[in-house]
Amino acid sequence: MRAQIITIGDEILIGQTLNTNAAYIGDALTKAQISVVKTIVVGDDETAILEEFKTSFDRSDIVIVTGGLGPTHDDITKSCIVKFFNSELVHHEEVMQDVKNIFLRRGRKMPDVNKAQALVPKIARIIRNQRGTAPGIWIKKNKKIFISLPGVPHEMKAMIDNDIIPELTKLNKNKDMFIKLKNLLITGIGESALFELLGDIGELLHGSRMAFLPSQFGVKLRITVEEAGEEVAINKLSEIEQKIRFKAGKYIYGTEDETLEGVVGRLLNERGLSLAVAESCTGGMISNRLTNIPGSSSYFERGIISYSNVAKVEVLKVNEDELIQNGAVSPESAKEMAEGVRSISGTDIGLSVTGILGPAGATKDKPVGLVYIGICDDKTCMVEQFFFGEDRLLNKDRASQAALDMLRRYLLGIS
Amino acid sequence: MRAQIITIGDEILIGQTLNTNAAYIGDALTKAQISVVKTIVVGDDETAILEEFKTSFDRSDIVIVTGGLGPTHDDITKSCIVKFFNSELVHHEEVMQDVKNIFLRRGRKMPDVNKAQALVPKIARIIRNQRGTAPGIWIKKNKKIFISLPGVPHEMKAMIDNDIIPELTKLNKNKDMFIKLKNLLITGIGESALFELLGDIGELLHGSRMAFLPSQFGVKLRITVEEAGEEVAINKLSEIEQKIRFKAGKYIYGTEDETLEGVVGRLLNERGLSLAVAESCTGGMISNRLTNIPGSSSYFERGIISYSNVAKVEVLKVNEDELIQNGAVSPESAKEMAEGVRSISGTDIGLSVTGILGPAGATKDKPVGLVYIGICDDKTCMVEQFFFGEDRLLNKDRASQAALDMLRRYLLGIS
Question: Which of A17, A183, A245, B381 has the most CB atoms in a 10 Å sphere around its CB?
Fold first, then answer.
């Protein structure tokens, strides 16, 4: 099956918004063994939209459209669908109830303009939207499938994952090449050092493909295996993964959509350990990431963002004289902050971060990018020194990632 | 002049790489008053590429292609151009020297495969590449322009900025239409309620365009004015903005690339006020956002993430009996947390958030999505109640946005 993706919206055309929707759908279809042959972006213009509907529906088996389903005047996708399929808009009571419930849950009055969300093309089957007011639209005609989804990313993603991909997978059963993908999530080593560590890539892959996808959080290694026979593909992928783990295992914190904070949370839960965090330069990012995980209250007790020195002394009980002598950005302060937050919270572990993330704050001896991370338990403390870059926001990402990874390695007993 | 952008590359189609090139070019063309009418992505496939060349060149005045100009076997854009224009490849000595110089500068031997980079379509004018080996290609035919650029973003960007846009601007001189854009950043009101508040959109815009771009952080209103005469366009844009501000001004926190945390930081700085934050359900996100702003240490004193009730009592001095009686998620607790964090920190303002963000934690009376936000200064406290959605991470975004916006309105004295 061949698919085309159409994104509707001036904001994408003029470069104000990146087309993350098309990338998400392209990725999901590829994983479901459906070839994406073309992606198109057009503006909020009826003639242009109708023309793309025609060309794409003529040329492919599946067309997935996103955008233009909202309740306001610039949302014209639904009227274009009705014209294109020569159908009409009819009231759909289930959709009306879904929309009303959304406003009810949020304790807000439903503006009248939302009544139009319950009007759907007569020819369509509805895909319910659990997160917003615009339902998805599924039309089957001439053995082809036309799908229209809202452009709000989290609404679209839920529908792609829960409805569209499972349905399309059922329809796409007869194929002979099997593509299997695996993403290994790596941190604490740079892209080129990782490349060297892995050695001969050709020998490693034997004709399969691998991409290095670096970011401030680490490197994602994406392995793609394509074989005739599903089992062959699965076995080959597993073999490649094992070889990589043998060489770089300690840097691999997870796979696919796992997060480092999720991995750390699972380890804390498994070991029945509690955590308190003292942050200076990261300003709450580490605690924020840890509390993104549902159930984190069972191990995360509190976080102290001791941005001022007064807060370090008053809340964390850091010794004031030593703080002045060593400076807030020092291994000694990192240790005292980790000890302090552990002691006031009564947790098993204290984690601390202090550093200079820029643009200001550097001294002769302490450059922008210098960060100390401390971990204390009831027996011992350890502090590590890091040098990151110049950019404040990237440095926050890097420092929070390094702190969570140091905690991961501490919990696993690897250094 | 109307332009279309074609991006060539499997990695974009299957969602491994975001199409940042098309966004960059779309933005640059729009600023140069050239309308982008369509963006297309196709894979590394000759038939598909030739077909898009034909359709796009038929339908627009300018076609800009990126990708597929590298020296390896999967780069086929150049051979497609030769076929499409019925031209031939010829050796270009200046390009050859440029390529040799690049390897010379890097102290590396030039691999033979790079000789092919000096072969260019006879029909083309060359755009020199200062940063890589693939030259850009500029072809004029039937008063239309066809441009092909390398896909490496920094190479492409340099050529767009230094060569393509200046040239196209010269050609586009006799235009009489001026496009002006403005983005208004809005929060605290839903898309459809905002739509109703603005009233008759046709009357408001008088032929100009406006898009509603919603997210969990609010709504971005993008106004586009296109007029004969630059001053006319500027005046009309300003008139529309004023009308919107008259009706919805209190919800508008900024324009263009501003952030709410940046706006709040500026207001605190201007008023010489200091802030401490007590977060429960948002887990550090508010403090994290505030400290994203360089110089935030001048007003942000500390943050307390009182995730456990013990932390609320011990650190924030919330009354334990009342906490048990009212529950941690209550207007009383929000008030006590804001008062407490202000009092222990000695700041002018205390801000607090407590709520149930899901998936667990709901009770019979308190649903997932219920959040209380408190603000205290030395004279008074205020608490507001919010109902957000079901998704934990979106709720963190929404709650942090609502808290920062409540602080903004407090600082501006608007309710």
Answer: A17
B19 and B115 both lie in a single domain: yes
CB-closest option in B36, B302, B390 to A14:
B36
B167 and B241 housed in the same domain = no
Cα–Cα distances (Å) from A156 to A20, A78, A378, B42, B390, in that order, read: 11, 16, 47, 23, 16
Closest CB to B48: pick one of A37, A110, A296: A37
Q: How many domains does chain B have?
A: 3
Looking at residue A174, its pLDDT comes to 58
Interacting residues of A341 by C-beta distance below 8 A, sequence separation 6+: A276, A277, A278, A302, A304, A316, A347, A350, A351, A352
* Shared domain check, B275 and B237: no
Distance (Å) from the C-alpha of residue A128 to the closest C-alpha of chain B?
A: 16
A40:B42 CB<8 A:
no
Q: Which of B10, B16, B201, B222 to probe by mutation at the A interface, max A CB count within 10 Å?
A: B16
CATH of the domain at A7: 3.40.980.10
Cβ–Cβ under 8 Å, residues A75 and A68 = yes
Q: Where do the H-state alpha helices sit in B77-224?
A: 77-84, 93-105, 153-159, 165-171, 191-198, 201-205
Taking an 8 Å cut-off on Cβ atoms, the answer to whether A305 and B291 are in contact is yes
Q: Which of B55, B241, B16, B27 is nearest to B146 (CA)?
A: B55
**Shared domain check, B184 and B160:** no
Instruction: Decide if A38 and B359 are in contact by the 8 Å CB cutoff.
Output: no
CB contact under 8 A, B22 and A41: yes
Q: How many Å apart are CA A346 and CA A274, to the nearest integer?
A: 9
Closest among A98, A100, A97, A78 to A89, alpha carbons compared: A78
Between A and B, how many residue pairs show a Cβ–Cβ distance under 8 A?
276
Model pTM greater than 0.90?
no
Instruction: Show the DSSP H helices in A315-356 as ranges.
Output: 320-326, 331-345
Given pLDDT bands bounded at 50, 70 and 90, which one contains residue A415? confident
Q: What is the mean pLDDT of each run of 10 residues along chain B (415 residues)?
A: 94 88 94 92 93 95 93 82 96 92 79 87 93 91 96 90 92 76 94 93 91 90 90 96 97 95 98 98 98 97 96 96 95 98 98 95 93 97 95 96 98 91
> Do B196 and B159 sit in the same domain of this protein?
no
- Selected for mutation to probe chain A from B21, B191, B398, B400 (highest A CB count within 10 Å) is B191
Backbone angles phi, psi at A224, to 5 degrees: -125, 120
Grade residue A27 by pLDDT with cuts at 50, 70 and 90: very high
Beta carbons of A108 and B294 less than 8 Å apart: no
Residues A334 and A199 in one domain: no
Above 0.95 for ipTM, yes or no? Answer: no
* Residues spanned by the domain of A128: 2-171
Q: Give the mean pLDDT of A168-183.
A: 81
Q: Percent of chain A scored above 90 by pLDDT?
A: 74
CA of A101: how far to CAs of A129, B178, B386, in Å?
11, 44, 16
Helices (H) and strands (E) in chain B, counts: 16, 17
Cα distance between residue B51 and residue B348, in whole Å: 65
Is A91 found in the same domain as A167?
A: yes
Which tokens go with A318?
A: 């850091």
Final residue of a structural domain among B255, B272, B305: B255
CA atoms within 13 A on the CB side of A375: 18
Q: Is B191 within 8 Å of A71 when comparing Cβ atoms?
A: yes
A255, A290, A314: which is the final residue of a domain? A255
Task: Measure the CA–CA gap between B415 and B413, rounded to whole angstroms.
Answer: 7
CATH number for the domain spanning B218: value is 3.30.70.2860
Regarding whether B273 and B124 lie in a shared domain, the answer is no
C-alpha distance from A370 to closest chain B C-alpha (Å): 16
